[in-house]
DNA sequence: AAGCTTTGACCTATA
DNA sequence: TTATAGGTCAAAGCT
């Protein structure tokens, strides 16, 4: 198992599809300083429930364990920009170069330390990046954002309302701008989608100041528009799952929704049945 | 009827 | 100061 790649671990752990990637990045942040923080650029980094993971467990275990939650939250610390690789010590990769995906982080510099921005980017896109990897850090210092290749899955269980779309010059793909539909939530995300519908990049700005809506697990609804939205999101995630298989070497998914949600529970002692996993498995089967 | 997406216009930051 | 790019607004139509 020690020779198993990170991708294999992920693939075997059944965490590749459906909704999960965004949560730990743009997920719920229990506290926010300031009042309202209308501008994400001035938003403080979310006080992630970081507890340094213990050493010496496999990442596959991590994926199946509630530890993943806090660990995944500590994958990237918007506060410190640190990536606690030590959580993979033992049977896991020793350093990030062992991963088939790139993680780019930067310590928040003075001017951007308060910015809360995350970028989930397609590895393929990174491979096309003309900037040599060894210079990426320098570039990242200028770009006040955290870049991590996670997956193209854009369904995170939160309610997003699209408020704009723009063709930006620096990318050939159009960007869609989304706001969280939760009242008073300033969380936003920018999704860059390729012509074939694949999400090539997701940028998160601001964190959620609320837990994830329930409908992701139980579209129980009452026919409300939120459930309709849930259907849309689920449908979109299914599409992503299909495209995911077409280029599996360029996409890695974290089961982050679960993580993030459990994090909320652990953080707030919320008791909630975890019936979302069957849903995940079901979607995964669709992609098989 | 509420809430969503679409899309052109507008605003703002930056070089 | 101006041009450009990126982000947001808001009306219209759709679900």
Automatic annotation (TrEMBL):
Which ranges carry the WRKY domain? 155-213
Q: Name one GO cellular component term.
A: nucleus
Q: Where in the cell is it found?
A: Nucleus
The UniProt family comment states: Belongs to the WRKY group I family.
**Where does the source fall among the domains of life?**
Eukaryota
Q: Which UniProt keywords apply?
A: DNA-binding, Metal-binding, Nucleus, Repeat, Transcription, Transcription regulation, Zinc
UniProt-recorded name of the protein: Probable WRKY transcription factor 25
Q: Which gene specifies this protein's sequence? A: LOC108836908
Molecular-function annotations in GO:
DNA-binding transcription factor activity; metal ion binding; sequence-specific DNA binding
């Amino acid at each position: 198992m020690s020779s198993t790649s990170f991708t294999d671990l992920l693939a075997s752990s059944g965490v590749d599809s459906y909704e999960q990637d965004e949560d730990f990045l743009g997920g719920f942040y229990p506290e926010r300083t300031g009042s309202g923080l209308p501008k994400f650029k001035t938003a403080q980094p979310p006080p992630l429930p970081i507890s340094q993971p213990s050493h010496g467990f496999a990442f596959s275990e991590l994926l199946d364990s509630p530890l993943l939650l806090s660990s995944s939250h500590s994958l990237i610390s918007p506060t410190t920009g640190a990536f606690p690789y030590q959580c993979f010590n033992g049977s896991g990769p020793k350093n990030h170069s062992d991963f088939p995906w790139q993680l780019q982080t930067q310590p928040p510099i003075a001017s951007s330390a308060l910015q809360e921005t995350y970028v989930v980017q397609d590895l393929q896109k990174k491979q096309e990046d003309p900037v040599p990897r060894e210079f990426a850090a320098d570039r990242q210092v200028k770009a006040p954002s955290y870049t991590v290749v996670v997956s193209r899955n854009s369904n995170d269980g939160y309610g997003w309302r699209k408020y704009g779309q723009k063709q930006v010059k620096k990318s050939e793909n159009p960007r869609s701008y989304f706001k969280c539909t939760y009242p008073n939530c300033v969380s936003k995300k920018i999704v860059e989608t390729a012509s074939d519908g694949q999400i090539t990049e997701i940028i998160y700005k601001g964190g959620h100041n609320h837990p994830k809506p329930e409908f992701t697990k139980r579209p129980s609804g009452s026919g409300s528009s939120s459930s309709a939205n849930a259907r849309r999101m689920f449908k979109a995630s299914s599409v992503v799952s299909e495209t995911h298989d077409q280029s599996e070497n360029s996409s890695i998914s974290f089961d982050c929704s679960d993580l993030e949600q459990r994090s909320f529970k652990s953080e707030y002692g919320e008791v909630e049945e975890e019936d979302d996993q069957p849903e995940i498995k079901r979607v995964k089967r669709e992609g098989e």
